[in-house]
Design brief:
Elements (H helix, E strand, L loop, with lengths): L2 H14 L5 H20 L10 H13 L4 H20 L26 H14 L5 H16 L3 H5 L6 E2 L4 E5 L5 E5 L2 H21 L4 H5 L12 H12 L10 H14 L4 H8 L4 H4 L1 H17 L4
């Protein structure tokens, strides 16, 4: 089977059968297109001609080009999935990708705001909404929900009004891989949501064309359409600019803060995993390292013999 045809069939299966997100499929498509280019330059136009040496040379070339470790690790994963698929489909007798290894990625600790900083930024947002401005009401409701539940920005923007159970204080979100989960939120988020849904949302909805998607959406942009992730990113980045700290400043910072503060407060690691929608407990464990680092920093500053 020619390389291009094999890659196309594999990508179709990733989206249609395995249910991977379009963004993930696009990343794999880019990686495998580069692999096809590399193989073609070496006279390998057929999928059956791939071997372990060629795959290793491809990753080595990426390393020499200065690509990030995370990018190379993703390329290795894309190649392993592709060659495994070729073997299952009988295109190859063996799987050369099974022995392909990529450099381990260095996992940096995420940026986290303290509980005091979180309380301050939410209080500032609430103060801006005191006069009932609909955009300010929306902003404080989004900030409160992001911090209270630890949901992703895509999950926030995808929320419909019917996904929010205001009686039980829960929200039903659609996470990665189309997996649905229910997350709780507390009283401050409930109050902010109530004000937004009862008063602010009505005003913004009236500004739009009144389409069915806007009518269903929990959060709206200033023109009355469903809010975009870009607007939420800008909002959170602007809010976090007032606080010191390294690393990216965006909605994921509030997700990191929610997870870390839950663990600091004694929450069980598996409970936090379920709340965040992590497929692997190992992904959640990064927050135990954050908590440990915070503990060491507090010890260093407070203990007389630190």
């Amino acid at each position: 089977m020619r390389q291009a045809a094999a890659v196309e069939r594999y990508l179709d299966e990733l989206g249609a059968v395995r249910g991977l997100s379009p963004r993930t499929v696009d990343s794999y498509a880019s990686d495998l297109a580069d692999l096809s280019r590399f193989a073609g330059d070496r006279g390998v136009a057929d999928a059956a001609g791939l071997d372990l040496d060629l795959l290793r040379d491809w990753l080595y070339e990426a390393t020499e080009r200065g690509l990030a470790r995370a990018t190379i690790a993703r390329r290795a994963a894309a190649a392993r999935g592709y060659t495994a698929w070729l073997t299952r489909r009988g295109v190859r007798d063996d799987d050369p990708g099974a022995r392909l290894r990529a450099p381990k990625t260095r996992r940096s600790l995420p940026r986290v705001v303290s509980t005091t900083q979180a309380a301050e930024l939410l209080a500032d947002a609430a103060a801006r909404a005191a006069d009932g401005d609909p955009v300010a009401l929306r902003d404080v409701a989004m900030l409160e929900l992001l911090y209270a539940s630890g949901i992703r920005v895509s999950e926030l923007t995808g929320l419909d009004v019917d996904d929010i159970d205001r009686w039980r204080r829960t929200a039903r979100v659609l996470g990665k891989g189309g997996k649905e989960r229910v997350v709780p939120y507390g009283a401050p988020a409930a109050d902010a949501l109530e004000r937004w849904l009862r008063t602010g949302r009505v005003v913004l909805l009236a500004r739009g064309a009144g389409g069915s998607d806007a009518a269903a959406a929990a959060f709206l942009g200033a023109k009355g359409a469903r809010i975009s992730p870009r607007i939420v990113h800008r909002l959170v980045s602007d809010v976090l600019d007032a606080f010191p700290g390294g690393g990216p400043a965006g909605p994921h910072t509030l997700r990191h803060a929610a997870a870390t503060h839950l663990l600091d407060g004694g929450a069980d690691l598996r409970t936090v995993q379920e709340m965040l929608g992590h497929a692997s407990l190992g992904t959640t464990q990064i927050y135990t390292h954050v908590s440990a680092e915070r503990l060491k920093e507090s010890y260093r500053l407070a203990h007389p013999r630190a």
